[in-house]
Amino acid sequence: MGEQHEAYLSGYAEILAEVAGTGRRLTRDELDGRRRLGEEAAEVGHSLRTLVRGHLHATRVSWPGKAGSEGTVPNVLAAVAQAVDAFAEGYERAQRLAVRQEEAARREFIDDLLYGRSDLGRLAERAERFGLVLSRAHAVAVAEGPEPYDDTAPVTRLVETALISRFGDRRVLITTKNGHLVCIAPGDQDEILAFFAKQAYAATDGGRVAIGRAQSGPGGVVHSYEEALSTLELAERLELGEHVVRAADLLVYPVLTRDRQAMADLVLSVLGPLRDARGGAEPLLRTLEVYFDAGCTAAEAARRLSLSVRALTYRLERVHQLTGADASDPVHRYTLQTAVIGARLLGWPDEDL
């Protein structure tokens, strides 16, 4: 055992010698002293296995001469067990405290990073501790499932283990925020986020994953994160069937709703009359949505809606009668389709505009 470890054996031989002579057990102060030494050893990063081996070696070297008799051997061995146990207890206590402090620092960093509420220069310095270089571009993927997840959830550990096994140390950070799984990866390594999406989809039993665009600079992570969150919400509003959605593929929708009042006016002006239909606006709105998704092919739209082609045609004619817009006319079709998208984005007709 090297000199750097000798300090953690201070007083050990003397304790064994006194125990051999008196048969007593270690006092409270002696046990507390061994615990403190264990804590100090853990704080500077020494190996517990090496230190325990050092205690055993010191026991052999300093074995008390009087401990050879049959009566004193059990007392000395009991003292060795007490001393080593106290030392290990202190060591483990210090490790648990360090882990809690590390977890708290990591959570504070994640919160500051994803809320963008810390000084960017200081944030960049802290990021290097967790494997991120914020001067580079990063992209963020966010996964949601049927239940909220935190950093200790089995799903989180499962996904994190899969990524580490596949990519090793590639400056990837897996965490959770507000019940979502979050993956932060270098912006030029899309394969990492694609793999995360695959693993998260499987681990969350079919949850949805949104991937934000790569953004540069210290504030890039929070921008990509917010974009991924908005994409999740957008996918839910549009009732998209895809389980993995990319913000880059849905950019047209935020553009359409940038002027919310203008879109609301379009929806009410074009589709408002559908509320006068028997059964309200929803059945005809759904018919238009499926018809457009089917490439304006009546037979395919009818199949998806479990209708006959004749029934579908009747619904489209009813839309024409109520709104004055013909879904088969290219000019009218664009207006109708834009209004249908706007209705889904704004939650109409369930929500008042």
Automatic annotation (TrEMBL):
It comes from the Bacteria. Pfam families: GGDEF_2, HTH_30. Residues 116-234 form the CdaR GGDEF-like domain. Signal peptide: none annotated. Residues 284-340 form the PucR C-terminal helix-turn-helix domain. Belongs to the CdaR family. This is Helix-turn-helix domain-containing protein. It comes from Streptomyces tagetis. The lineage of its organism: Bacteria, Bacillati, Actinomycetota, Actinomycetes, Kitasatosporales.
